[in-house]
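Usage

Read records sequentially. Each one opens with the input sequence:
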Amino acid sequence: MGNVKVNILLLILFWGVGVSVTSGEEDGDNAEEVFQNFTESFYDCIKDENISYDALHTGLKGYHYLRKSYKLKKKQYLTIVDFSIPSDRDRLFVIDVAKNQVVHRSLVAHGEESGDRIPTSFSNDHDSHKSSLGFYITGIVYTGKHKESVKLYGQEKSINDKAFFRGVVVHRAEYANRSYLDSNNVLGKSLGCPAVPFKDYDKLVEMIRDGSCLFIYAPDEDYLKASKIVNSKKGYSNFMEAYNS
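and closes with the structure output:
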């Protein structure tokens, strides 16, 4: 991971001369270019994890958009669920933003009505049994149907803001384990929750619980056009501010 940190610092130093992060269009363009170069350098170092570049780029941009929110209490970790990857491969990635590295990865199930190996249909509606895309902030751990589960609060109006009331949470499930996949040649599906394996579940929960950013990505044109977070330049300016501090 050393190379990506060096590259990031060089980029910031290069662009930092004469660049102040303001609301000006020119500074916004510079911030965007630095962010793009940062993401490319970061991706070069972690591409063996098999996360897609678009998921990483969009996830980091949204993380920085939310970074200054009082609700984002745990800024160390960004969790990306990459639904461009089929369900028989690892597609949940926890990134340590401070260290610029993936610190946890696993299988993750999607909603039963969202599609087969790769989900293509998403919903914010109750009882849709579909996954919802977009940015979330994690909540407390509570004990329910699936024992210890992590509450999720959708941050995107009309896209995932009903997640809490739908009961969409991070939880472990038998059908999300590698053994289920090996026996059935397909991973099981949830009622809309990002369900994960039993292995290392406690470790995952401790990292992401209580105010971290979680992003569920798919190359879905409707979502990418509708998301205010994805289409805002606020993430770029917040990124520059973070790395200039």
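Summary fields computed downstream for this record:
- The chain has one domain: 2-244.
- Confidence is low (pLDDT under 50) at residues 1-6, 10-26.
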